[in-house]
Amino acid sequence: MNIKLLIFDMDGTLVDSADANYSAYATALEEVGVELTREFFDIHCFNGQHYTQFLPQLMPGESQEAIKKVHARKQEVYARNLDQLSVHPYLKSLIVQQKETLKIALSTGAARVAVDNILPIMGLENVFDLVLTGDDIQNKKPHPEIFLRTMEYFHTEPHETVIFEDSDIGLEAARLTKAWVFQVHQWANND
């Protein structure tokens, strides 16, 4: 096995952002009269789906403009909740250890603004050779576009690539590339 590229998902894989995301979505939705339970969030929202896939379920009959406004408000609230985030200590260590010998990429469905806010707080702003976000692609996971574009950028083959993912949708996208896939299970920062 001759690995040349490591690709990391962000939310739930490299960064534990579930609480911050839930709090931000709950606040934004409450402001428009919609209750978001933690159970619904965990099952439908924080499993790799894009907001355009799950917000319409919570806001049936609402326009795309109304859904975009709720998401924009979520982003504002989320930016104030970044102190709730923690980085996966072992994956961060792996990135630091392999930075000089392998290409390292962050390929996440998260918005560019969220990524740009999170990476410096987590001490990860200068470690990636490439950062692709949900804003950079047409097809969201489970489509493998984000991972395929990352491999294309580095001219690497699937057998030279390891993708780190946590969600079912992300794992499906990763497996479709035929790359090596490492499933990151739920973890807790026990500092």
UniProtKB/TrEMBL annotation:
<dbReference type="Pfam" id="PF13419">
    <property type="entry name" value="HAD_2"/>
</dbReference>
<keyword id="KW-0479">Metal-binding</keyword>
<dbReference type="InterPro" id="IPR023198">
    <property type="entry name" value="PGP-like_dom2"/>
</dbReference>
<comment type="similarity">
    <text>Belongs to the HAD-like hydrolase superfamily. CbbY/CbbZ/Gph/YieH family.</text>
</comment>
<dbReference type="InterPro" id="IPR036412">
    <property type="entry name" value="HAD-like_sf"/>
</dbReference>
<protein>
    <submittedName>
        <fullName>Beta-phosphoglucomutase</fullName>
    </submittedName>
</protein>
<dbReference type="GO" id="GO:0003824">
    <property type="term" value="F:catalytic activity"/>
</dbReference>
<dbReference type="GO" id="GO:0046872">
    <property type="term" value="F:metal ion binding"/>
</dbReference>
<dbReference type="InterPro" id="IPR023214">
    <property type="entry name" value="HAD_sf"/>
</dbReference>
<dbReference type="InterPro" id="IPR041492">
    <property type="entry name" value="HAD_2"/>
</dbReference>
<dbReference type="InterPro" id="IPR051600">
    <property type="entry name" value="Beta-PGM-like"/>
</dbReference>
<dbReference type="InterPro" id="IPR006439">
    <property type="entry name" value="HAD-SF_hydro_IA"/>
</dbReference>
<keyword id="KW-0460">Magnesium</keyword>
<keyword id="KW-0119">Carbohydrate metabolism</keyword>
